[in-house]
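Example record

One chain of 165 residues, shown exactly as stored in the release files.
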Amino acid sequence: MIDFIMTNLPIIVCFVLGIGLLIMEALMPGFGIAGFSGIALEVVALVLTWQQHGTMATLGMLLIVLSVLAIAISTSLHSLTKGKLSKSSIVNSHTESTDAGYRSAEDMQVFLGREGTATTALRPTGLGEFDGVRLNVVSEGDFIENGTKIRVTQIEGSRIVVKKV
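Predicted structure tokens for this chain:
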């Protein structure tokens, strides 16, 4: 048994380290050094197995590698959709919906010339409400008190400039 382990030690080390690196890569975002190193170690382990033990042993090892990778990938996908990772702000893409208050710069052009109310003091930035929609606005440099009537005078990208009516 010891002779078997000692003669196959390079294969075992390459195999175990390669699997470990591939699992680590599956659980980490991106494709980097761990993934390339894991693939290289698995290829080395497969070549050494093929040279020392033949085709059937190599196919058996390849089956084990693919099974471990399938389990690691399915675990990652499960974590992405239902685990702790799914609750993180990195994965939540629905937070940028218009229902949550996000609007594109093109949408803002409809507010040009509209009148509304400052819902916070504008020093020079704050919030204004126009037809029931709250927007981040910037005054033309003047301090505008909360509750004052304001008008949109200019839109530069996502920057909405207002002045007191």
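Notes: Residues 98-164 form a domain with the OB fold (Dihydrolipoamide Acetyltransferase, E2P) fold (CATH 2.40.50.140).
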